[in-house]
Amino acid sequence: MSYSFVIVSKNDSPIFEYVLNGDASESGHLNQFIIHAALDCVDEAQASTTQWFLRCVDRFNDKSIFAYITAGLTRFMLLAEPTSSTSIKSEDAIRSFFLDINECYLRHVMNPFYVEGQAISSDSFREKVANVARKYLL
Amino acid sequence: MEKTLKKGRPDIAMSSFSFLFAEMLNYFHSRASSSDELEGRLQAAGERLGLKVLELMTYREKANRKDTLESFLSFISNNVWRMLFGRPADGLQRIPADNSYMILESVPITNRYIEAGQLNPATFITGIIIGMLRAAGFNNPVETHVWKKDESTNETTNVYLVKSK
User: Where would I find the H helices in chain A?
Assistant: First the structure.
């Protein structure tokens, strides 16, 4: 499996990006494009539920895009791409992944110096995301 | 060291809060040329808190997404108020005439030692409400008013008026 994870702020700009097992040079830009296109599907999906986890919102060939929305309308987008040897993780694993990411994100947002919509460049945040991703997605 | 995000005993001494709030007022006062500007700065300070408070509360209470203004305001006036001020607000009323809402509070924590005259310190709390509404995508304007409950006793209550868009 390879994954691309992006945090998109309320006003649709990406504020954090993380790639797990992926080859950024080859499909990175395509993945960004697919995730961006899936934002429209997030808008549709959030109208039909009051849950934060919106499940799989879009598919592109064999790639699936999962989404999670926070109370401040920040969106977590996860693009999962199966490789030949492994199949896709269950929705429950991805839900747990998002919930743990939400906690990391919340800790970052609670910082009094963090202003809404700012890009997240903290190394410790990246490390935490990497740990959570390894825990649930590998 | 990471502090827990779960509910603990969040009580903070009234004196500490009053000290910090008074310092904040002083700071803004020395930099503002009119009471309107001072209120604007107070409100802006509250707005920055809104997103943080909303994200934290939603995480703690494991609350679902609120898709109507009414359910969102009731979440604010109960759960959020209880977290910030230790008790729910004194009331949430809908004004059917123009579909706006009022959150009532007789003595806001910011006005405990300061009388609301030309300047209403509760503008800070208005800012928090605006910040939360904006974070959740509602964007309704909010005004602060002091409302005389009873002409004879001079009893007043503070009204946060959430106007319809």
Answer: 24-47, 91-109, 123-137
| CATH code where residue A69 lies | 3.30.450.70
- Would you say the pTM of this structure is higher than 0.95? no
Closest CA to A21 of A80, A101, A87, A96: A80
Q: What is the ipTM of this complex?
A: 0.87
**Structural domain spans, chain B:** 14-162
End-to-end distance of chain B based on CA atoms, in angstroms?
Answer: 43
Q: Say which residues have a Cβ less than 8 Å from residue B106's Cβ, sequence separation at least 6.
A: B90, B155, B156, B157, B158
Contact B65/A72, CB-based, under 8 Å?
no
Domain B14-162 annotated CATH 3.30.1380.20: yes
Report pLDDT digits (tens) over B81-135. Answer: 998 998 899 999 999 999 999 999 988 989 888 877 788 999 999 999 999 999 9
Q: Is the pLDDT of residue A87 over 70?
A: no
pLDDT score of A126: 96
How many folded domains does chain A comprise?
1
pLDDT digits (tens, 9 = 90+) for A9-20: 999 999 999 998
Query: Which of B59, B64, B135 shows the shortest C-beta gap to A106?
Result: B59
A71 to chain B: which residues are within 8 Å by CB? 54-55, 57-59, 63, 65, 135-136
Per-residue tokens: B127: 């800012």
Q: Taking CB atoms and an 8 Å limit, are B5 and A107 in contact across chains?
A: yes
- The token duo for B19 is 């000290």
Domain range for A87 is 2-137
